[in-house]
Amino acid sequence: MPAYIPAPEVTLDNYQDNGLVYSEAEKAERRALGLPAAEPAPVGLLKKLPPGRPVVSKRAISAPKVLNDAGEYGSAFPRGLRVDLPGGITHLLLSGTASVGAHGETLYPGDFRAQLWRTFRNLTELLKSEGATWHDVVRTTCYLRDIERDYPEFNRVRNEFYRALGLDPFPASTAIQARICRSELLVEIEAQAILIR
Fold first, then answer.
1. How many domains does the chain have?
2. What Cα–Cα distance (Å) separates residue 85 from each residue in 89, 139, 171?
3. Has residue 175 been placed in a domain?
4. CB 89 within 8 Å of CB 195
5. pTM higher than 0.70
């Protein structure tokens, strides 16, 4: 297994040096999410909490004596189920979601980043349909068709999106290399959220 090399953090200062080029499809999906089309999003840009509803209290777990924080490395059937528990707790379990359009069509074949942004957009809309946001998400499981090839870009885009949302801490997460249900899909993410009613 090759050594892990973290992707450099993209900032407005080093954007040009990284040579990042955004496809027209990626720009459209970024704009639809409220992000700048072709430049890194500022931290907290999308931090909009629903009025009058508390967000589940979360805190990061750490064991600094044996493990440092992942942030030091620079380092998403039915579409989902809503589970209402006694005591006013709701769990949202979102099925694996990918770059699929309103008619079930695969969007952006071959464009990994555009597919990832569309996946985040689809998950955002599923959360929104139940009155939730990414601030309610506690865990994701992320499936990449080719993890060795695509993980650095996956991690860069995910970090940018979560930072733009102002998430702290980020959701717990696992990334797995897997065959996805359609050969043209390159990434799929499932998510779990908890809401206080």
1. 1
2. 5, 18, 21
3. yes
4. yes
5. yes
